[in-house]
Amino acid sequence: MLRIKSLLIPGVDKTLLVKDAARLMPDLTRRRFLSGGASLGALTLLTGCDVIDGASAENLLAKVSKFNDAVQAAIFDPNTLAPTYSEKDITRPFPFNAYYSLDEAPEIDGKDWALEVSGLVDSKKSWTLAELTQLPEVGQITRHICVEGWSAIGSWSGVRLSDFLKLVGADTNAKYVWFRCADDYTSPIDMPTALHPQTQMTLKYDGQILPRAYGYPMKIRIPTKLGFKNPKYVVAMEVTNDYKGGYWEDQGYNSFSGL
Ligand SMILES: Nc1nc2c(c(=O)[nH]1)N[C@H]1C(S)=C(S)[C@@H](COP(=O)(O)O)O[C@H]1N2
Ligand SMILES: [Mo]
After folding, report:
1. Where does the Oxidoreductase molybdopterin-binding domain start and stop, copy by copy (predicted)?
2. Which of 59, 118, 120, 165 is most buried, by CB atoms within 10 Å?
């Protein structure tokens, strides 16, 4: 079974590719890669190469073999930015993914919805959608990489999470921001990632109100992390020093899973 899954990309054994790539990495990068879960998704994050066939797998290995001190410095810099793309690169239609099918996705009425804010914050007031929509908006066209082996480029806009954390007086020395979703999905985000300039409270997809498929009314978009660390249908945020686990994290996926 495992063998079949590792060969889902024609002519490419994913398990072997990940092993070969790790072998080519300089020590620091390899340690970071292995402790981060060593998946094909992580390789895609590190190299920006998407593996779809044998030729792109070779290309990825060639890129890894050129990793040097500059690459390491970038990877270990918390301000490293995920690559951005232009409108014409957007994947249409953008894929839907969740631990269930689309017809089972939460149906949330935006008028009733409010974001609960708790934990190590000065202001524990809940935020309505109308209030969030009034905050300054930023946009990004970035690549979403799923650990299951697909990636797609999309366009998301909303409120920079670091701006919001400032606004509610969050203790930014706390270890995590933990998100809870309407479908019982959860995910903890480390504070440096929560404060990363590209981490976003997303309210729109491709210029339109965020569709139900992609997490209406709000998702957290983190282009420096694998897709499963991008919670959709968010209903609550807690600033905390406790590691509270998450849907995939509790099933063995590495909580770091990113750059
Ligand atoms: N609430 C919630 N968020 C979630 C998930 C989920 O099942 N429920 N799946 C995650 C995974 S594994 C992926 S790849 C992305 C998919 O997001 P998309 O539907 O916008 O492509 O959502 C992530 N966030
Ligand atoms: Mo995913």
Report:
1. 105-248
2. 165
**What is the atom index within ligand 1 of the atom nearest the CA of 226?**
14
**Ligand 2 center–CA 69 separation, angstroms:** 30
Residue 125 Cα to ligand 2 middle (Å): 31
Alpha carbons within 13 A on the beta-carbon side of 8: 11
Which pLDDT band holds residue 1 (cuts at 50, 70, 90)? very low
Residues 66 and 145 in one domain: no
**115: how many CB neighbours lie within 10 A of its CB?**
20
Is there a single domain that holds both residue 57 and residue 131?
no
User: Are 144 and 193 found together in one domain?
Assistant: yes
Place of tokens 């779809």: 52
- Chain center to CA of 125: 26
Is the shortest distance between the CB of 150 and ligand 1 below 6 Å?
A: no
pTM over 0.85: yes
